[in-house]
Design goal:
Elements lengths: L2 E8 L6 E6 L2 H9 L12 E9 L2 H13 L1 H9 L3
Antiparallel strand pairs: 1-2, 1-3
């Protein structure tokens, strides 16, 4: 089974980013955009700017944690996806 770590960027005047992991990337993005995703993502529209496929849940959780806590990497991903 595959897992995805992903980064979303809000489509608004004051952009925000969100990092998460999931088994079904397409469905998860739909949930975020319909207000049924994570509490932080409610009330905004999102677009996918980064995804990474991993083989285990533990790898996905670990990678998500790394990306969330590495501001330099998050800014690099944002800069490459304007």
């Amino acid at each position: 089974m595959s897992y995805y770590v992903y980064m979303l960027k809000s489509i608004s005047r004051k952009p925000a980013t969100y990092v998460g992991y999931t088994k079904n990337l397409t469905n998860r993005i739909k949930l975020h955009n319909t207000g049924k995703g994570a509490k932080f993502t409610r009330g905004r529209q999102w677009r996918l700017i980064y995804k990474e496929k991993l083989t285990t849940k533990n790898q996905a959780i670990s990678r998500e944690y790394y990306i969330k806590n590495n501001r330099k990497l998050r800014n690099l991903i944002k800069a490459n996806n304007k």
